[in-house]
Amino acid sequence: RRGSGRGLDSAGGEQDGDDPPEVDPLRWSLLPSNGLLRANMPEAVASENNTARLKLLVMHKPTHDARTNAAGNYPYSWHLHNRKRLWEVRVQVHFKVVPVHRQSVYFGLEMLPGPQSSGYTTKRIQKMILAGIQGTIGKEFYQTAGDDPEKTSGEVEPPCFAMPLWAVDAFHVADPGSEPDLTSDMSKIGHRRTDGTKAYIEAMKDVIANLSADKVYTFCFWGVSQFVDANLWMFQGLLGLKMDANNLCGRPPIFVVAYELLGDEATAARSSDGNRKHYNSQKNYFFKVALWSKQKPPEKEALRELLGDVVDDEAGDDGATNGASDSAEAPRGPFGQVRALMKRRRRSNQDSEEESRRNKHLA
Description:
- The chain has 363 residues and is an alpha+beta fold.
- It is 23% helix and 24% strand.
- The protein contains seven helices and 16 strands.
- The protein has helices spanning 66-71, 77-80, 120-137, 197-209, 245-249, 300-307, 333-362; strands at 26-30, 37-38, 45-48, 52-60, 87-95, 105-110, 142-144, 160-164, 170-174, 191-192, 216-221, 228-229, 234-238, 241-244, 254-261, 283-293.
- The two termini are 39 Å apart.
């Protein structure tokens, strides 16, 4: 077993020791929704749409639990512990339909449209964060605060941060059936940016030029994670500054996306700096994931509009429904079931210890 210490191991099972770590606050769901999911799942999540077959895995350090984080008592600690990255996203794509506009394939973040922040401090910190990101992945990305719906006629461009595929940190190409397990150690396979940026970009450009429905593509991304704590919903790491992500991204959730930008490049609408606008109507999505933290959750009604009644499963996250005990109706949702199981195990251990003490006293 690669996990170390107590808590949950890399396979999601309970390790030896005292109380397990708190269930992480990060939540995500593919759109259309396939249910509520969390970071550090024991297996990759499989999905399929009209454009591709997908597998996704989100790893995140337990930054909401300082003791567990420091001790390395968490899933995938064998991979994340003692590294700068706070999280890593791994995605496998098996195209059903190969992108036509291969040089216009992007991976990144979208936010909900809304009024733009005009505060000096917010804008200054935003510039510092973007400068830090440029130093990590380069300048070839598109970032916009989006259009203000109250001041825009016609389609509104959402706030977004979009990168060409070669800005991801690692990739691997395989024949179907021989692709790597996303939960495994992938440090010795494929291409990595840290092996040399120039050669890496050239290798990725060759892959993009030859995208095929006969291959499975694995992409790993963590480069900007040192600046973004998704659990705490916070930007950090620049000159000791920290800021609520809502101050820069607007209201949650945010969307992790991969898409092909359609339309004629020559006649496309452009922003004031000359970059092409990324309107949602011109995006052919390979996937779109809604992501948020329970520490700074979206309004429930807004979330229900996106995900449907699946948001009601959140009631089970704390291991109980309506104050019911473990012997009552089982808690709803996968998180409630996990917490209830852990509680029963702790109670069983406590009972065993009490019985042992009684036996020792009688002896």
